[in-house]
Design brief:
Distance between the termini: 11 Å
CATH class: Alpha Beta
Shape: globular
Number of helices: 11
Number of domains: 1
Number of strands: 10
CATH architecture: Alpha-Beta Barrel
Strand order of the largest sheet: 8-7-6-5-4-3-10-9
Radius of gyration: 17 Å
Strand content: 15-25%
Helix content: 40-55%
Structural class: alpha/beta
CATH topology: TIM Barrel
Largest sheet: 8 strands, parallel
């Protein structure tokens, strides 16, 4: 069984990873695949953030640009217009900003965020490394095979994305990005890695990542998981409606927690919390002690 990291250092604070950490999803976008347009007003978005904290989220992850397959990019100014007023009004927990732009991240950090969640692993904007190093923010580096605009949902590929071995290929690529982050002065203890479920993987390749998650835990970095309502979960659960995928998403999260993953980005905090705090989960914890 893999040994999990005990904490994640974020701007001088040690966030305990002894129990599962939930990052509630707050998309302030009109076109996200599951909840696009629901929180387009600042007041609604702030109320949703408060609800996520009250339900048990340690982090709320705020994004102003959809990264669903087929999504087009959003200007820096528009992302800032969407996320900053929401972040400024949020109270009650840690805030991450879901962006690949260092300008958006900087504005979000100034407004009160403390974590950068970069789905490009700082490929889109290498200045993100320097920003994370300067601010001491948490930095999530995620694997992405192609840009969202060129991607497809995992169950819609005519030809599977090319990997020699998806687990080792993704892990090794992430460690290369980690090395670059360290070269730019990012605190090693502030880095988390995300295999990037979806984002250029077929249903079978996503399943292989779930089954091989210990390879990521064994790197020694906190493992950040985003499977909530993804298309491969829908394929497993046999439902095309993203909102009907919460129980299956939580079940998969529970399996990865058992294998050492620690941080889970989710839409439905209550369902995930119930699953991760179930008697079976408690027995799993006892077995590891």
């Amino acid at each position: 069984m893999s040994s999990r990291e005990k904490c994640w250092r974020i701007q001088g604070r040690a966030v305990s990873l002894e129990k599962p950490v939930l990052a509630g999803i707050l998309n302030v976008t009109p076109d996200s695949f599951s909840d696009g347009g629901e929180y387009s007003s600042v007041d609604k978005a702030i109320a949703k953030a408060q609800g996520l904290y009250e339900e048990g989220a340690t982090i709320v992850d705020v994004g102003g640009e959809s990264t669903r397959p087929g999504a087009t990019s959003v200007s820096i100014d528009e992302q800032i217009r969407r996320v900053v007023p929401v972040i400024e009004g949020m109270r009650g927990g840690l805030i991450s900003v879901d962006t690949t732009s260092s300008e958006v991240a900087n504005a979000a950090l100034d407004a009160g965020a403390c974590i950068i969640n970069d789905v490009s692993a700082c490929q889109d904007d290498p200045a993100m490394f320097a920003l994370a190093a300067k601010t001491g923010s948490g930095l999530v580096l995620m694997h992405r095979l192609v840009l969202p605009e060129a991607d497809k949902y995992s169950d819609q590929y005519d030809t599977k994305p090319k990997y020699d071995d998806v687990v080792s290929d993704v892990r090794d690529w992430l460690l290369q990005r980690v090395s670059l982050a360290l070269d730019h002065g990012v605190d090693q203890a502030s880095i988390a890695i995300d295999p990037g479920f979806g984002f250029g993987k077929s249903v079978e390749q996503n399943v292989a990542l779930v089954e091989g998650i210990e390879a990521f835990v064994d790197t020694g970095y906190p493992v950040f998981i985003g499977v909530s309502r993804k298309s491969f979960v829908g394929a497993i659960a046999r439902t095309s409606d993203p909102r009907e995928r919460d129980f299956a998403s939580a079940t998969i999260a529970h399996e990865m927690w058992k294998s050492g993953a620690q941080i889970f980005r989710v839409h439905d905090v209550r369902t995930h919390l119930r699953m991760l705090q179930s008697p079976l989960h408690e027995q799993d914890n006892n077995d590891r002690r």
